[in-house]
Amino acid sequence: MDLAVALVLCLCSLLLLSLWKQCSGTGKLPPGPTPLPILGNILQLDVKDISKSLTKLSKIYGPVFTLYFGMKPMVVLHGYEVVKEALIDLGEEFSRRGSYPVFQRATKGYGIAFSNGKIWKETRRFSLMTLRNFGMGKRSIEDRVQEEARCLVEELRKTNGSPCDPTFILGCAPCNVICSIIFRNHFDYKDQILLDLMERLNENIRILGSPWLQVRPNSAVFFPALIDYIPGKHKKFFENFACLKSYVLGKTREHQASLDINNPQDFIDCFLIKLEQEKHNQELEYTVENLANTVLDLFIAGTETTSTTLKYGLLLLLKHPEVIAKVQEEIDHVTGRHQSPCMQDRSHMPYTDAMIHEIQRYIDLVPTNLPHAVTHDIKFRNYLIPKGSDILTSLTSVLHDDKEFPNPEVFDPGHFLDESGNFRKSDYFMAFSTGKRICVGEGLALTELFLFLTTILQKFTLKSPCLTPPPSVNYPFFRKHIKYNFLANFSNDYVNCNHNAVH
User: Fold this and answer.
1) pLDDT for the residue 11
2) Best CA proximity match to 69, nearest among 42, 33, 107
3) What SS3 class is residue 500?
């Protein structure tokens, strides 16, 4: 009986604490739906389509509103104007990384993506400088991507018409590019180490893509302090992350043994040289721990986002053969069938450039962005947002803005073409986020997407003979497992691509 009374008292105390915390900010934070004690607004959201829920709420509360995830408030920014105002016009004030307990627990506050303060600024600056020195945006990195594009095509040819799931192959190509920069490694597509790395990475992406973790990115959604004690998929995430980190630390030890400070060969070499130069610095931005997490950030971001965009891009192209025909006509005109596409060709291929941007806009890969936070108390649109408050920016609301992109739910490369058929840049293109936290690898990703897709379409014709019409391409469908058949036709150096969904 005493235990039952104690439990009731504890529950009542938690409820009171929840109500007090939720009410203590009244008059400061933007308006929003009334939260429930402990649960917040969780039950008022469609966990399978958060972006749709945010759009509905924005029509009621405006472009700036507050949601509670558990007892913690999050300010939501919906629409281009308010996202631009926060992340670009007030970029420094909104530059802090918001709460993401799963990754914060895994990275311990190091790396690029989930660090803050001086560690983030110094690590990001160093990483950008080093990536540029190793060719990002230059001819040297283009040569690496072109060579990998040729390897990718050869792997697709090896299928000889048998059913194949291209997910792994499409992941290997960008993985090898980023590994050549950070590890000085190039894996054969059948290498067991590569197979293990990709499997753990893909499993973690599947875990992070589950609806529960999308609502609040951890299984201990209401009590992050209990994340080590609550069962759930995040346990497997931590296990996989630890294995990936162990591999990076092993490579780091190899680099330490062979390091030539006068001739750095890759990202790890450069970081180790900087670590030695800063060994008396008490700030500790340059440590082996930070190196490991920074390399993992680059590896994960440099592999997963590009490979996923390639996979969904091929699916979209299968549904739109008229787009394939126009792109191949442009390729034939600019490069022909046998000359490898290069980045200089992009300025002469406006439709292809528009097609790639439209793929990224349409699939909306990171619909709610990674969470931001404000660095200090700030007055924003007549609201007072306290220091450290989490900020959720809806990139869907920008990428699918119907004023900038007529019929945004329709896949149409014309969204990025002017009346004369020239490529049209758009400030609304925020597929890599924007502002201070924009993706470090944006330049590399755009290079890879252009060269991989043009090389594939130069050598292959993609068709869907078994499904007429092809399956509907929409956000839930993207989360399905897709299979393709690459059917070789060596008489004209093209192949047909047949696909079906596995439910």
Assistant:
1) 56
2) 42
3) strand
CA 87 to chain CA mean position, Å: 17
Residues 268 and 295 sit within 8 Å (Cβ to Cβ): yes
Is the model's pTM score more than 0.85?
yes
Angle among Cα 171, 172, 178 to the nearest 5 degrees reads 95
Helix, strand, coil shares, percent, the chain, to 5: 55, 10, 35
Confidence of residue 19 (pLDDT cuts 50, 70, 90): very low
The predicted structure's pLDDT at residue 288: 94
pLDDT of 167? 80
Residue 501: closest CA among 475, 474, 470, 465: 470
Among residues 316, 342, 299, the alpha carbon closest in space to that of 198 is found at 299
Mind listing the pLDDT tens digit for each residue in 213-222?
555 443 344 4
Alpha carbons within 13 angstroms on the beta-carbon side of residue 21 total: 19
Cβ neighbours of residue 81 under 8 Å, at least 6 residues apart? 63
Identify whether the C-beta of residue 359 lies closer than 8 Å to the C-beta of residue 312: yes
Give 320's Cβ-side CA count (13 Å radius): 19
Alpha-carbon span 374 to 46, nearest angstrom:
26
For residue 379, pLDDT over 90 is answered with yes
